[in-house]
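Demo today. Your pick:
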Amino acid sequence: MPKKKTGARKKAENRREREKQIRASRGNIDLAKHPCNASMECDKCQRRQKNRAFCYFCNSVQKLPICAHCGKTKCMMKSSDCVIKHAGVYSTGLAMVGAICDFCEAWVCHGRKCLSTHACICPLADAECIECERGVSDHGGRIFSCSFCHNFLCEDDQFEHQASCQVLEAETFKCVSCNRLGQHSCLRCKACFCDDHTRSKVFKQEKGKEPPCPKCGHETQETKDLSMSTRSLKFGRQTGGEEADGASGYDAYWKNLASGKCGDADDHDDEYEEDEAEDDDEEDTEEGGKDSETETTDLFSNLNLGRTYASGYAHYEEPED
C-alpha cells in the first residue's frame, strides 16, 4: 500500500509544477509584449513607433534606450553579468547599451546573457507582413501575429487581415483530396481535410495536439470550432440567383430567355425605346428653334430705321440742308 502524501510533500510538488510552468512560459512570450516589439515615443518628433535604436522618422537617438531582450532601461549592477564593469554606479542611456540587433533594430544592453542569446532567438528575425510584404526596416510600426494563421502582420494590416482570415479557398467545406466533409481546417493553406487525409508521412502528429496540415505542417483546427466561410464570387456563373427549377448563372439566363421569362432583357428593351423617344423629342425641339429664328430674321430684314446710334451715326453728324 503506497504511503500517504504529507502536506509538506504536496506543497513541494505544487511548487515544482509552478516553477516548471513559469520556465515554459518564459520562452513563449506574446509577440506584442516582447521588449523588442514594445511601443516607443520619440523624444524629438513625439511620434509613436516600435522600439528602435534610432527614430524611424527623424533618426534621432533616444535618451532612455530599452533593452530588446530583458526590457530594462537602467543597469543596477546586482550581478556580475555585465561585460563592462561599473561597480557602485547605476548606468543608463548609452552607457548601458552594448549592441544593436540586426533584426529588430533595437538596443541590446551590455549584459553577457543578452548579448550572447538575443540575436539567436530574436522573434522578429524573419518578420515580414503576410499582406504587404514589408519587414521591420520598411515601416515604423509594430509587428503582430495573426490569431488564426499565426503569420506576421504589420500595424496597418492586422485588423483587415484577421477579419478575412477564416475564408477557405474553395466553394465548399469538402476535403481537397476526396469528396467527404473536411473536419480539420488549415488556416494557412485555407483548405479542409478529412480524418484520413490529415495523416502525413512527412509531418508527424504530436501527442495531445491536433494533426498537422499535410501540405505545410501547420497545426490544424477543427472546422466546427471556427467561424469558417467559403469563397464567394460576385461575377461569372455565380451571379444568377437560384430559380424554382434549380438553375442559376448562365444556364438560368438561357433557360429563362428560351421560356420568355427573361425580364431583364425586356426591361433593357423598354429603356432603349424610351431613350430613343427622348432623343427624337430633343431633335424636334432643336429643329423648331432653328425654324423660328429664320422666320424672325425674315420679318425684320426689310425694316429701315434710318441713321441711328446703332448704325454708327450721331445726330450731330447729320448733314445740314
